[in-house]
Amino acid sequence: MKLLYIDCCITVHGSASRTAALAETFLSAWRAAHPEADIETLDLKTLTLNPLLGNALRLRETLQGEGRTEGASFALARQFAAADRIVIAAPYWELSFPAQLRLYIEHIAAQGITFDYTSQGQVGLCRAEKLLFLTTAGGSLEANCGSEHWRALCPFFGIGEYHFIGAPMQDVKEIDHEALLRDALSQAKALAESF
Ligand SMILES: Cc1cc2nc3c(=O)[nH]c(=O)nc-3n(C[C@H](O)[C@H](O)[C@H](O)COP(=O)(O)O)c2cc1C
Questions:
Q1: Is the distance from CB of 125 to CB of 64 less than 8 angstroms?
Q2: What residues are in contact with ligand 1 under a 6 Å CB criterion?
Protein backbone atom coordinates (compact mmCIF):
# COMPACT_ATOMS: atom_id res chain seq x y z
CA MET A 1 0.00 0.00 0.00
CA LYS A 2 1.25 3.49 -0.85
CA LEU A 3 0.27 6.69 0.93
CA LEU A 4 0.88 9.93 -0.94
CA TYR A 5 1.58 12.84 1.41
CA ILE A 6 1.05 16.23 -0.24
CA ASP A 7 3.02 18.71 1.88
CA CYS A 8 1.75 22.25 1.35
CA CYS A 9 2.82 23.47 4.82
CA ILE A 10 3.98 26.89 3.65
CA THR A 11 4.65 28.78 6.88
CA VAL A 12 6.10 31.80 8.64
CA HIS A 13 6.54 29.70 11.79
CA GLY A 14 9.58 27.71 10.63
CA SER A 15 10.00 24.42 12.46
CA ALA A 16 7.12 25.43 14.78
CA SER A 17 4.55 25.13 11.97
CA ARG A 18 1.36 23.83 13.58
CA THR A 19 0.12 22.37 10.29
CA ALA A 20 3.38 20.45 9.78
CA ALA A 21 3.16 19.17 13.37
CA LEU A 22 -0.36 17.89 12.71
CA ALA A 23 0.80 16.14 9.52
CA GLU A 24 3.88 14.63 11.20
CA THR A 25 1.77 13.31 14.09
CA PHE A 26 -0.67 11.64 11.71
CA LEU A 27 2.06 10.20 9.46
CA SER A 28 4.12 8.80 12.32
CA ALA A 29 1.04 7.11 13.83
CA TRP A 30 0.04 5.82 10.38
CA ARG A 31 3.56 4.46 9.76
CA ALA A 32 3.44 2.62 13.11
CA ALA A 33 0.02 1.13 12.29
CA HIS A 34 1.03 0.14 8.72
CA PRO A 35 4.72 -0.89 8.91
CA GLU A 36 4.57 -2.61 5.53
CA ALA A 37 3.32 0.45 3.66
CA ASP A 38 5.23 3.18 1.77
CA ILE A 39 4.87 6.91 2.26
CA GLU A 40 5.71 9.05 -0.76
CA THR A 41 6.04 12.78 -0.08
CA LEU A 42 5.30 15.48 -2.62
CA ASP A 43 6.77 18.77 -1.39
CA LEU A 44 4.56 21.52 -2.79
CA LYS A 45 6.49 24.12 -0.75
CA THR A 46 9.35 24.01 -3.23
CA LEU A 47 7.71 22.84 -6.47
CA THR A 48 7.33 25.35 -9.31
CA LEU A 49 3.80 25.03 -10.69
CA ASN A 50 2.58 27.33 -13.43
CA PRO A 51 -1.07 28.27 -13.85
CA LEU A 52 -2.70 26.79 -16.95
CA LEU A 53 -2.69 29.72 -19.38
CA GLY A 54 -2.57 30.32 -23.15
CA ASN A 55 -0.47 27.90 -25.16
CA ALA A 56 0.26 25.63 -22.18
CA LEU A 57 -3.46 25.17 -21.57
CA ARG A 58 -4.21 24.59 -25.27
CA LEU A 59 -1.41 22.00 -25.53
CA ARG A 60 -2.64 20.22 -22.39
CA GLU A 61 -6.23 20.06 -23.70
CA THR A 62 -5.02 18.73 -27.07
CA LEU A 63 -2.89 16.02 -25.45
CA GLN A 64 -5.77 14.96 -23.17
CA GLY A 65 -8.19 14.92 -26.13
CA GLU A 66 -5.81 12.63 -28.04
CA GLY A 67 -5.13 10.44 -24.99
CA ARG A 68 -1.40 11.35 -25.09
CA THR A 69 -0.95 11.68 -21.31
CA GLU A 70 2.25 9.69 -20.81
CA GLY A 71 4.50 12.81 -20.70
CA ALA A 72 6.01 14.74 -17.80
CA SER A 73 3.24 17.35 -17.75
CA PHE A 74 0.83 14.67 -16.48
CA ALA A 75 3.22 13.09 -13.94
CA LEU A 76 1.49 14.71 -10.93
CA ALA A 77 -1.90 13.44 -12.12
CA ARG A 78 -0.55 9.90 -12.58
CA GLN A 79 1.04 9.99 -9.11
CA PHE A 80 -2.25 11.18 -7.51
CA ALA A 81 -4.30 8.57 -9.42
CA ALA A 82 -2.02 5.68 -8.39
CA ALA A 83 -1.91 6.28 -4.60
CA ASP A 84 -3.88 4.04 -2.21
CA ARG A 85 -4.22 6.72 0.47
CA ILE A 86 -3.85 10.50 0.18
CA VAL A 87 -3.00 12.97 2.95
CA ILE A 88 -2.88 16.70 2.26
CA ALA A 89 -1.67 19.29 4.78
CA ALA A 90 -1.97 23.04 4.23
CA PRO A 91 -2.53 26.07 6.47
CA TYR A 92 -5.87 27.88 6.44
CA TRP A 93 -5.40 30.94 4.24
CA GLU A 94 -8.21 33.25 3.12
CA LEU A 95 -10.78 30.73 4.38
CA SER A 96 -9.27 27.92 2.28
CA PHE A 97 -5.61 27.10 1.50
CA PRO A 98 -2.59 28.61 -0.30
CA ALA A 99 -2.85 29.19 -4.06
CA GLN A 100 -0.08 26.63 -4.58
CA LEU A 101 -2.53 23.87 -3.58
CA ARG A 102 -5.17 25.25 -5.97
CA LEU A 103 -2.55 25.15 -8.75
CA TYR A 104 -1.81 21.55 -7.82
CA ILE A 105 -5.51 20.70 -8.22
CA GLU A 106 -5.43 22.17 -11.76
CA HIS A 107 -2.46 19.96 -12.58
CA ILE A 108 -3.92 16.70 -11.22
CA ALA A 109 -7.36 17.22 -12.80
CA ALA A 110 -6.46 15.42 -16.02
CA GLN A 111 -9.11 13.74 -18.14
CA GLY A 112 -8.30 10.09 -18.73
CA ILE A 113 -6.04 9.90 -15.65
CA THR A 114 -7.84 11.14 -12.53
CA PHE A 115 -11.36 11.50 -14.00
CA ASP A 116 -13.23 10.94 -17.25
CA TYR A 117 -16.47 11.76 -19.00
CA THR A 118 -18.53 8.74 -20.07
CA SER A 119 -22.10 8.05 -21.17
CA GLN A 120 -22.83 7.82 -17.42
CA GLY A 121 -21.48 11.34 -16.94
CA GLN A 122 -18.34 12.35 -15.07
CA VAL A 123 -16.53 9.47 -13.30
CA GLY A 124 -13.50 9.43 -11.01
CA LEU A 125 -10.54 7.22 -11.95
CA CYS A 126 -8.36 7.44 -8.83
CA ARG A 127 -7.34 4.33 -6.94
CA ALA A 128 -7.37 5.84 -3.43
CA GLU A 129 -10.22 4.84 -1.14
CA LYS A 130 -9.49 7.50 1.48
CA LEU A 131 -8.31 11.11 1.52
CA LEU A 132 -7.44 13.17 4.61
CA PHE A 133 -7.14 16.96 4.61
CA LEU A 134 -5.31 18.57 7.56
CA THR A 135 -5.19 22.25 8.43
CA THR A 136 -4.61 24.74 11.23
CA ALA A 137 -6.20 28.19 11.37
CA GLY A 138 -5.42 31.49 13.06
CA GLY A 139 -9.10 31.94 13.89
CA SER A 140 -12.37 30.09 13.37
CA LEU A 141 -12.76 27.19 10.92
CA GLU A 142 -16.48 27.76 10.45
CA ALA A 143 -16.31 28.99 6.82
CA ASN A 144 -13.87 26.27 5.79
CA CYS A 145 -13.95 26.49 1.99
CA GLY A 146 -10.70 24.49 1.77
CA SER A 147 -12.18 21.43 3.43
CA GLU A 148 -15.43 21.76 1.48
CA HIS A 149 -13.43 21.93 -1.76
CA TRP A 150 -11.61 18.66 -0.99
CA ARG A 151 -14.85 17.06 0.20
CA ALA A 152 -16.42 17.85 -3.20
CA LEU A 153 -13.31 16.80 -5.14
CA CYS A 154 -13.30 13.30 -3.61
CA PRO A 155 -16.31 12.00 -5.59
CA PHE A 156 -15.01 13.93 -8.65
CA PHE A 157 -11.81 11.86 -8.46
CA GLY A 158 -13.60 8.64 -7.41
CA ILE A 159 -12.32 8.66 -3.82
CA GLY A 160 -14.96 7.17 -1.51
CA GLU A 161 -14.02 8.41 1.96
CA TYR A 162 -13.19 11.97 2.96
CA HIS A 163 -11.72 12.93 6.37
CA PHE A 164 -10.87 16.33 7.80
CA ILE A 165 -8.97 17.34 10.94
CA GLY A 166 -8.33 20.98 11.79
CA ALA A 167 -7.06 23.03 14.74
CA PRO A 168 -8.75 26.45 14.95
CA MET A 169 -7.78 29.62 16.89
CA GLN A 170 -4.02 29.09 16.68
CA ASP A 171 -3.31 32.85 16.56
CA VAL A 172 -5.73 33.80 19.37
CA LYS A 173 -3.51 34.20 22.43
CA GLU A 174 -6.43 34.88 24.79
CA ILE A 175 -7.74 31.33 24.57
CA ASP A 176 -6.07 27.97 25.17
CA HIS A 177 -5.10 27.45 21.52
CA GLU A 178 -2.52 24.83 22.51
CA ALA A 179 -5.34 22.66 23.91
CA LEU A 180 -7.14 22.98 20.55
CA LEU A 181 -3.97 21.85 18.76
CA ARG A 182 -3.57 18.94 21.20
CA ASP A 183 -7.17 17.92 20.47
CA ALA A 184 -6.43 17.88 16.71
CA LEU A 185 -3.24 15.86 17.30
CA SER A 186 -5.26 13.30 19.30
CA GLN A 187 -7.82 13.06 16.50
CA ALA A 188 -4.98 12.51 14.02
CA LYS A 189 -3.47 9.70 16.11
CA ALA A 190 -6.89 8.07 16.55
CA LEU A 191 -7.65 8.13 12.81
CA ALA A 192 -4.26 6.71 11.75
CA GLU A 193 -5.12 3.13 12.79
CA SER A 194 -8.20 2.80 10.55
CA PHE A 195 -7.07 5.05 7.69
C1 LIG B 1 -1.20 34.50 4.12
C2 LIG B 1 -1.97 34.04 5.34
C3 LIG B 1 -3.35 33.99 5.29
C4 LIG B 1 -4.09 33.56 6.41
N5 LIG B 1 -5.46 33.53 6.34
C6 LIG B 1 -6.18 33.14 7.42
C7 LIG B 1 -7.62 33.10 7.40
O8 LIG B 1 -8.27 33.42 6.41
N9 LIG B 1 -8.28 32.70 8.50
C10 LIG B 1 -7.62 32.31 9.64
O11 LIG B 1 -8.27 31.92 10.62
N12 LIG B 1 -6.26 32.32 9.70
C13 LIG B 1 -5.53 32.73 8.62
N14 LIG B 1 -4.15 32.74 8.67
C15 LIG B 1 -3.46 32.24 9.90
C16 LIG B 1 -3.01 30.79 9.72
O17 LIG B 1 -4.06 29.98 9.27
C18 LIG B 1 -2.51 30.22 11.06
O19 LIG B 1 -1.48 31.00 11.60
C20 LIG B 1 -2.04 28.78 10.86
O21 LIG B 1 -1.99 28.10 12.10
C22 LIG B 1 -0.67 28.75 10.20
O23 LIG B 1 -0.16 27.45 10.24
P24 LIG B 1 1.41 27.16 10.47
O25 LIG B 1 1.68 27.31 11.93
O26 LIG B 1 1.56 25.77 9.97
O27 LIG B 1 2.14 28.18 9.62
C28 LIG B 1 -3.41 33.18 7.59
C29 LIG B 1 -2.00 33.22 7.62
C30 LIG B 1 -1.28 33.65 6.51
C31 LIG B 1 0.23 33.70 6.59
A1: no
A2: 9, 11-13, 17-20, 91-95, 136-139, 170-171
Report the alpha-carbon distance of residue 87 to residue 107 in Å, rounded. 17
Tell me how many degrees the CA angle 166-193-43 measures, rounded to the nearest 5: 55
Residue nearest to atom 2 of ligand 1 (CA): 93
Q: Any idea how long the chain is? A: 195
What's the confidence (pLDDT) of residue 192? 98
pLDDT (tens digit per residue) in 65-87: 999 999 999 999 999 999 999 99
What digits encode the pLDDT tens for the residues 40-72?
A: 999 999 999 999 999 999 999 999 999 999 999
102-108: long-range contacts, CB 8 A cutoff, minimum separation 24: 103/49, 103/50, 103/51, 104/6, 104/8, 104/44, 104/49, 104/76, 105/149, 105/153, 106/51, 106/52, 107/49, 107/52, 107/76, 107/77, 108/76, 108/77, 108/80, 108/81, 108/157
The full set of domains in the chain, from first to last, is 2-194 (3.40.50.360)
Query: At what angle are helices 75-82 and 99-108 packed, to 10 degrees?
Result: 80
**Phi and psi for 71 in degrees, rounded to 5?**
-80, 175
Check if the beta carbon of residue 157 is closer than 8 Å to that of residue 104. no
